[in-house]
Design brief:
4 helices, Coiled-coil domain-containing protein 51, mainly alpha, 87% helix, transmembrane, rod-shaped
């Protein structure tokens, strides 16, 4: 019985040893698999970190490239804007130079206009004085005259000419209205006079013709003077305005 029990214990011990060996072997296999899994996890983590670093580097590089191109585009835009403004300014200045004559030509033109204005105002003043002397009236108010000095600039002289033309226009309008009114009064006084003197038919026709001729000449001369003066004003004012605008 003792031998049988001993044999049974030995068999059980051997079976336990076999099972322990199998367990140890399976444990070693599991440990190897865990190590492989850890290594694979580390490799995957390293690859993920490398991918993240590469992606961040690419994103940073793209951002730097965008910033660089933005600065370049802004600089080019500002440069093109400056060049465009300069070209537009040059074109505008050339057009203004083409429109506005040279200063020498404009100075000679201003001098010619001054001479014409002086001549015209002297003729008009002489004409008005002749009419007033013929009608035995008092002397008319004088029309101002512009006498250019050496120290006067073209701008001051042009302003003086404009003011002179305006004053002449007012004075001439007043004088023409007064002359028309005086002629009408003279004609009415002649037609309404009570002392009638008989004149022959031939003499009366001659006087009527002379009166009509004188009246028509006066009207024609007055009309020519006024038209010439207004034409001179209409021609000189745009030139003077263009000169002021150019200067």
């Amino acid at each position: 019985l003792f031998k049988i029990c001993k044999f049974t214990n030995v068999c059980r011990y051997l079976r336990l040893l076999t099972e322990e060996h199998a367990v140890i072997k399976s444990e070693q296999l599991l440990i190897a698999e865990v190590k492989k899994t850890d290594e694979a996890e580390k490799a995957a983590f390293d690859e993920l970190s490398s991918s993240l670093r590469t992606s961040y580097a690419k994103e940073q590089e793209q951002s730097d490239r965008v910033k660089t191109w933005t600065v370049i585009a802004s600089t080019l835009g500002a440069l093109f804007g400056i060049i465009g403004a300069w070209v537009a300014n040059e074109v505008r200045m050339r057009k203004m130079k083409e429109l506005v004559p040279d200063s020498a030509l404009l100075t000679s033109l201003v001098k010619e206009i001054t001479a014409l204005v002086e001549k015209q105002q002297s003729e008009v003043a002489a004409f008005i004085m002749d009419i007033r002397e013929a009608m035995h009236l008092k002397a008319a108010e004088g029309i101002p005259v512009v006498t250019p000095n050496k120290g006067m600039t073209d701008y001051v002289l042009s302003e003086a000419i404009v003011n002179l033309l305006q004053e002449q226009n007012k004075v001439l309008t007043k004088e023409l209205d007064a002359i028309k009114r005086l002629i009408a009064i003279e004609l009415n006084s002649k037609t309404e006079t009570p002392n009638v003197v008989y004149i022959g038919s031939d003499m009366e026709d001659l006087l009527n013709k002379s009166e009509k001729n004188i009246e028509s000449k006066m009207k024609l001369q007055t009309l020519v003077e006024v038209v010439f003066l207004y034409t001179l004003i209409a021609v000189s004012l745009p030139l003077i305005y263009a000169f002021f605008k150019g200067t």
